[in-house]
Amino acid sequence: QVQVPARRKCSPLLDSALLPGGSELAVHEWKAVPDIWRTAAEKYADLVALVDPYHDPPSKLTYKQFE
Question: Which GO biological process annotations does it have (predicted)?
Fold first, then answer.
């Protein structure tokens, strides 16, 4: 049986920050969306953050590239 990894709807950073007993991050320091991306880029620099399948070829950006 083949297992397909689940796709996230948001950043792993937000997943952990929004769950009870979540992350150690100072969520209260985020004033705007760019602050969230900056923190995500620091923690998950090389993970894929954005996939655009509608371009030919499809494009993927990591958190570091998206910041």
Answer: fatty acid elongation
Angle at alpha carbon of residue 13, lines to 11 and 17, rounded to 5°: 125
Distance CA 67, CA 55 (A): 20
Q: Does 20 reside within a domain? A: no
22 vs 9, higher pLDDT: 9
Average pLDDT for 32-61: 87
Two structure tokens written together for 18:
């929004």
61 inside domain: yes
For residue 46, what pLDDT band results from cuts at 50, 70 and 90?
very high
Overall domain count for the chain = 1
Is residue 40 in some structural domain? yes
Q: Which range marks the domain in which residue 37 is found?
A: 28-67
* Cα dihedral 7, 23, 65, 30 in deg (nearest 10): 120
